[in-house]
Amino acid sequence: MKSFKNNSMKWRYFKQHLFFGAVRLSALVIALALGGILFYIIVNGIGAISWDFITKPPTDSMTKGGIMPAILGTIYLTIGAIAIGLPLGIASAIYLTEYAKQGRVIRLIKVGINCLAGVPSVVFGLFGLGFFVIFLKFGSSILSGSLTLGFLILPTIIGAAEEALKAVPQTFREASLSLGVSKWQTIYRIVLPNAMPGILTGSILGIGRAAGETAPIMFTAAAYFTAKLPGSIFDEVMALPYHIYVLATAGTNIEATRPIQFGTVLVLVGVVLSIDLIAIIIRSYMRKNKGW
Amino acid sequence: MDSNIIIKLNKVNFYYGQSRALTDINMNFIKNKVSALIGPSGCGKSTLLRLLNRMNDLIDGTRVEGEILFEDKNIYAKDVDPVEIRRKIGMVFQKPNPFPKTIYNNIAYGPKLTSMNTGDLDTLVEQSLKQAVLWDEVKDILNKSAMNLSGGQQQRLCIARALAMKPDILLMDEPTSALDPISTAKIEELIEELKKNYTIIIVTHNMQQAARISDETAFFYLGNLIEYNKTEKIFTNPDVKHTEDYITGRFG
Asked: Which of A100, A176, A224, B204 would staple A186 via disulfide (CB 3.0–4.6 Å)?
């Protein structure tokens, strides 16, 4: 009997090690893949990076010079997308979680939002072209591109905001309402401030997507080449992802610009990470005031 | 209406969806008294309490029949704003639920947002904390987060927060069930003190507590008001056998 017990224990330990090993391995594979990509980009791109590369416009048919207009363009477009996507997304989430009566209509809207998240980005690009650029006559511009990207990241932000709002304890709402404070004031003063760190976490994902997408901006905002910097939101801009796409597929000398392509990729990663960092700093500042 | 009666319930029925939680409740709450609602879990006592400041409005699919008169006006009438009702009828919850704000801002929150004519806010905060017998413990840390206080202190802060609105009635939903005996004793003393100026309606699971602090006691069972009497009478010589069985611990 005793030996049977021991064997069964051994078998269970063996299974445990097996499964722990398997999950460890999966984590390792992901870390390696991510590290590998970053390593590859850095090794190939670091040579192209210089002060001039970041601060000068391209020259010689984009085979030399810098990418400053594209960096600025991507920053403008990303900030524009957040400026449109964040308020709209938070407002939608507040309606869905705090005001709307839960029922069939709301379920349908939520299915719609999930579908929106699955729509390929090129479809957003075509929508942006048809609606913002042509119908509303915004032209190919920062405004059209920001609106298109804003709608693209909307489902991400709504999803994150919904989760964050639901995570705010119901007792906070009850306490506020029991004092004779109105529902909107309760949401604005108590619920939203406590949900904000969570909303920002979700938005960070949206930021990365807005900054990195090519398809939505190629019809709506991105210029093949322009050395001048945008003077208003109705101007076209260069953008990093589109610049990479152009250099790698339609440039005047694709092979010769490989180092510039990698350099641009590296800068794009850097820009996304810095915007994320700003969001993270804001979030940790907001979290300091939170005690639950 | 008798001037001593502050709330009057007329044939109140309450439903969660299809199921009836309260059946034909008729009762009066008397001004400046402590009324205790007792009964086993699920008997409807908390539901009744939350009816009195329309907190059940927050739950989807609930329905009220009958009328609840507060100052001669049915608080469920169409033209009544629940926000107005809640300003006059404050509430303290089962678990202390301070906001993740400073102690000062927890108290100032309600008066500030409801643009009450409070005069000086600092004075109001001090007054409210003194009324809740918390002032001496927190007067030097008003700008610290309320989350760092102990459970008993948090609950007294919640009472102070409700008092800052200068309500007529204070509803308490098992306010000591999450607290240790010493904190419980402090809150009970506080209730004794507060009834001079406020009408207090308290739900409690603890029968000794009801006996200690209340003037009137109502015993509920399965959504029915079984007996409502002077506390002394309920605990010494109740009219209904059912009440006696519950109080002596024969069931529940």
From this structure: A176
- Domain architecture of chain B: domains with CATH: 5-247 (3.40.50.300)
Query: Would you kindly state where each structural domain of chain A is located, as residue ranges?
Result: 71-287
How would you classify the pairing of strands A64-65 and A58-59?
antiparallel
Give the helix/strand (H/E) hosting B93: none
- For A122-177, the pLDDT digits (tens) are 999 999 999 999 999 998 899 999 999 999 999 999 999 999 999 999 999 999 99
Chain B interface includes A185 (CB < 8 A): yes
Q: Minimum mean pLDDT among B103-107, B118-122, B192-196: which range? A: B118-122
Report yes or no: B232 at the A interface, CB cutoff 8 Å.
Answer: no
- Tell me B58's DSSP state: G
Residues of B with Cβ-Cβ distance to A185 under 8 angstroms: 113
What digits encode the pLDDT tens for the residues B131-184?
888 999 999 999 999 999 999 999 999 999 999 999 999 999 999 988 889 889
Burial (CB < 10 A; 0-12, 13-18, 19+), residue B59, is exposed
Token pair for B134: 């918390």
B203, B234 contact by CB (below 8 A): no
* Residues B167 and B182: beta-carbon distance below 8 Å: no
| φ/ψ (deg, to 5) at A2 | -65, -45
Mutation pick from B52, B99, B101, B166 vs chain A, by most beta carbons of A within 10 Å, is B99
Q: Residue A173: its chain B contacts at CB < 8 A?
A: 58
Residues 6+ apart with CB under 8 A from A93: A157, A158, A161, A162, A164, A165, A199
The answer, for A175 touching chain B at a CB cutoff of 8 Å, is yes
Please report residues of A whose CB lies closer than 8 A to that of B101.
289
* Residue B210 CA from chain centroid, whole number: 13
For domain A71-287, the CATH architecture is Orthogonal Bundle (1.10)
Choose among A105, A219, A106, A207: nearest CA to A157: A207
Residues of B in contact with A174 (CB under 8 A): 55, 58, 93, 97
For tokens 């402090």, name the residue. B186
Output the six-digit token pair for A70: 């594209």
Spatial separation of the C-alpha atoms in residues B141 and B146, rounded to whole Å: 9
CB contacts < 8 A (A, B)? 75
> What ipTM was estimated for this complex?
0.90
pTM of the predicted structure, to 2 decimals: 0.83
- Residue in chain B closest to A100 (alpha carbons) equals B60
Would the CB atoms of B165 and A101 count as touching at under 8 Å?
no
CB within 8 Å: A175 and B113: no
CA distance from start to end of chain A: 51
